[in-house]
């Protein structure tokens, strides 16, 4: 590119730089990366007083890229990707998201949602772009406004506050969570102490506890179950958060049964089918993988449990929101990667991760597991009936 006029014309059309040499260095495997520092442009020619200073700065910037290039190079290679099945959205999540989408279509923006409709930042950001407004409490919604309750459920006090503000409430609580609320009310009505197995700071547990706060005691693991004190050991029942690690929850129940032989509980454990299926699927791919990648947000209980299950199976695991968070150094030397997504993570995140990994070398994608889910939950009547 010898002509200053030619360069000026290209710059006017939006060109940032012209590279006429790097193609000679590129191979035919699609894995070539070229990093160049440009020290001249139409306004600052190569032969000029500022060239030495710009050259020194360019060299300094190039050196800063060395670690990144080395990490990228170490992460390249041919890989097999094992996809867990089932993965991604469950019926409760689909219902919750569909409730907000239908409310926006039917009533228009803004539609207020208490807390995150599901624990995934991609879902929340998408709904925000479409007119949903996420608030912490019902008191933040203008009087008479439309409020959607998130999938995790709420304590009765939240409904009371909404009624006091004359809000139109649409309940997107997962039906499986609502079932746990009903169990706790039933046990409490007969005077039982209810041991709620779950994480005390999780929204689902907070909402469930609110059904009978004077009767509910929360334990998160077998060790806590060993030390819990109840007023009447002969009148104890238990319920569970729906997104727990299956094995640890079962151990906690075993401790409670040993300590309280008259322990009552649901006919079927409260951990939802989707949580159980995804944990079994990730356990399967972990046995064949060198690394398991779980797509999901850090505040997603079911996603965190998937990473824990993989680790418990002896395979390193990482939980990331999307492919952009994947650390390259974790891929060095890894040729078999298991991939799954939490029940609140959009399926598109898996496709995007596969695409990004294919940019580091050829990939073979294998579906692992035969688990299928045909559960569907109807949307609330407030968004479906005239």
UniProtKB/TrEMBL annotation:
Group of enzyme by EC: oxidoreductase
Membrane-spanning ranges: none
Residues noted as binding (2E)-4-hydroxy-3-methylbut-2-enyl diphosphate in the record, renumbered to the chain: 119, 152, 202, 242, 300-302, 344
Record-annotated active site: 204 (proton donor)
Residues annotated as binding [4Fe-4S] cluster: 90, 174, 272
Amino-acid positions noted as binding dimethylallyl diphosphate in the UniProt annotation, renumbered to this chain: 119, 152, 202, 300-302, 344
EC number: 1.17.7.4
Pathway in which this enzyme or protein is active: Isoprenoid biosynthesis; isopentenyl diphosphate biosynthesis via DXP pathway; isopentenyl diphosphate from 1-deoxy-D-xylulose 5-phosphate: step 6/6; Isoprenoid biosynthesis; dimethylallyl diphosphate biosynthesis; dimethylallyl diphosphate from (2E)-4-hydroxy-3-methylbutenyl diphosphate: step 1/1
NCBIfam families: ispH_lytB, PRK01045.1-4
The protein's role, per its UniProt record: Catalyzes the conversion of 1-hydroxy-2-methyl-2-(E)-butenyl 4-diphosphate (HMBPP) into a mixture of isopentenyl diphosphate (IPP) and dimethylallyl diphosphate (DMAPP). Acts in the terminal step of the DOXP/MEP pathway for isoprenoid precursor biosynthesis.
Protein name per its UniProtKB record: 4-hydroxy-3-methylbut-2-enyl diphosphate reductase
Organism encoding this protein: Kribbella solani
